Automatic annotation (TrEMBL):
Protein name: BTB POZ domain-containing 6 isoform X2
Native source species: Paramuricea clavata (Red gorgonian)
Pfam families, sorted: BACK, BTB
Native organism taxonomy: Eukaryota, Metazoa, Cnidaria, Anthozoa, Octocorallia
InterPro entries in UniProt: BACK, BTB/POZ_dom, SKP1/BTB/POZ_sf
UniProt superkingdom: Eukaryota
Length: 320
């Protein structure tokens, strides 16, 4: 069912007898609950939103809220209203529309905002109900923008779609401000991925940009020491050992590693045993390369073309 903002009209001005008459004609429980959406009849709590004081007022029902969300269930309901300061009236309308009507917002950007609010109130059913609609709408641009929110919201199915886009377009992701603002835990997950479609030097340079930005956020100088302190053990997830030796010495050497670490990695690159090397030498190049994906896509395109020609030829023979 499609959600439209015009459906959010407040029913307070409707005569009580007319409301009762309309309500009692509903033959299904779903229709009766839906009718109570933003309806003053038997409303025992109001929801307001906005930064500048209580703006739009939404009529709600404690029972519906508590039955939908464990957060609301344990809420102190000895109050007559709840104010959500960081939520727009459109987002709150979409949120309540889902609770009362099982409706997913038709506007994709708004749907992600409603998702964030739904996850904040632990309404996991929103993701299950709306993922089939939202998944095809996750473009690379939206994936870059919403990855962090989806991870925090534990919307795993949608986050996986975002990761797939990032796997295919990592350089584009690295060039955006969205990347610079990701949390360390998200960077950790990124460095763990085996399917990033780029070389390790590109990943290293992206991490350096992220570190420069983080130093600025923390108001510290972008020294090697400060960068290492911010990055912590994630340094060992950058696969320096798969880089070209000359490129490694030229671009990495003094940027993030100590002289001892550089020497140890160069020794490993030259086939020497380095027993104390902290980098994982069993996980080398990421498993799926861009070339493999391109070759795979071309292969299937070629097979489809050949099959199309064969089917077309058979059809022509049958028509003779």
């Amino acid at each position: 069912m499609a959600f439209e903002w015009k459906d959010c009209a407040v029913f307070g001005a409707v005569p009580e007898d007319k409301i009762s008459e309309e309500l009692f004609t509903k033959t299904r429980v779903f229709d009766r609950i839906s009718y109570l959406y933003n309806n003053s009849i038997m409303s025992d709590i109001k929801l307001t939103c906005g930064d500048s004081g209580p703006g739009e007022v939404f009529f709600a029902h404690k029972y519906i809220l508590a039955a939908s969300s464990p957060v609301f269930y344990f809420y102190d309901f000895n109050i007559s209203s709840i104010h959500l300061s960081d939520v727009s009236h459109v987002t709150l309308a979409g949120f309540l529309s889902f609770l009362y009507r099982d409706e997913c917002p038709t506007d994709v950007e708004e749907a992600f905002k409603v998702l964030r609010l739904a996850m904040e109130y632990q309404i996991s059913s929103f993701t299950d109900a709306c993922k089939d609609y939202l998944q095809p709408k996750v473009t690379p641009e939206r994936a870059f923008k919403w990855l962090e929110t989806l991870i925090e919201s534990k919307a795993e199915a949608l986050a996986d779609v975002c990761w797939t886009h990032i796997d295919s377009h990592p350089s584009e992701f690295f060039s955006l401000e969205h990347f610079l603002k990701i949390k360390k835990t998200t960077l950790d997950a990124l460095l763990d991925r085996e399917t990033l479609c780029c070389d390790e030097m590109t990943i290293f340079k992206a991490v350096m940009k992220w570190l420069d930005y983080q130093c600025g956020l923390n108001d510290v100088r972008p020294t090697i020491e400060n960068k290492r302190k911010i990055l912590g053990d994630l340094i060992y997830k950058i696969r320096f050992v798969v880089m070209e030796q000359g490129e490694f010495i030229k671009n990495v050497g003094a940027e993030l590693l100590t002289d001892v670490e550089v020497i140890a990695i160069v020794k490993f690159m030259n086939g020497l045993e380095v027993p104390d090397l902290k980098w994982n030498t069993t996980m080398l190049k990421r498993q799926v390369s861009c070339g493999y994906r391109l070759l795979n896509a071309r292969l299937w395109f070629g097979i489809a073309t050949i099959l199309g020609s064969i089917i077309g030829g058979v059809a022509c023979l049958n028509n003779r």
